[in-house]
Amino acid sequence: MYKRQVSGYAFVLHATAKFWEFPMSMTGGNGSVELTSLMGIGGVIELVFGILLTLGLFTRVSAFLLSGQMAVAYFMFHAPKGFFFPLMNGGEPAILYCFIFLYFVFAGAGAFALDNKIAKK
């Protein structure tokens, strides 16, 4: 019932870990990632569109962009370490997020979403 909200919230936590080291550090305690780096741009996408997905606002567009981001992450960082073995190359979360977000592209926001409130007006 709350698949979209939980997925979006979990994804926002990736951004907060990158920028504010909350709830953990993703940089090994070296401070937050630079905003202009590839990880920083990814963090901005995760934060903005993860919040939109959690709220159910522009759900299909947000989910499409987040799915694409995870596909790029897999092919850019994980696939070179062994394309057909996501468990071994560390890409299992990227693949799961990619297909979860792709599901929301087609399924839409669901019952509890701001998209529904806007559509009624």
TrEMBL record:
**Which keywords does the record carry?**
Cell membrane, Membrane, Transmembrane, Transmembrane helix
Residues in coiled coil: none
User: A Pfam family in this protein?
Assistant: DoxX
Q: Which residues cross the membrane?
A: 41-59, 94-114
Q: Where in the cell is it found?
A: Cell membrane
Q: How does it sit in the membrane?
A: Multi-pass membrane protein
Primary location: membrane
Tell me which family the UniProt entry assigns to this protein.
Answer: Belongs to the DoxX family.
Q: Specify the protein name.
A: DoxX family protein
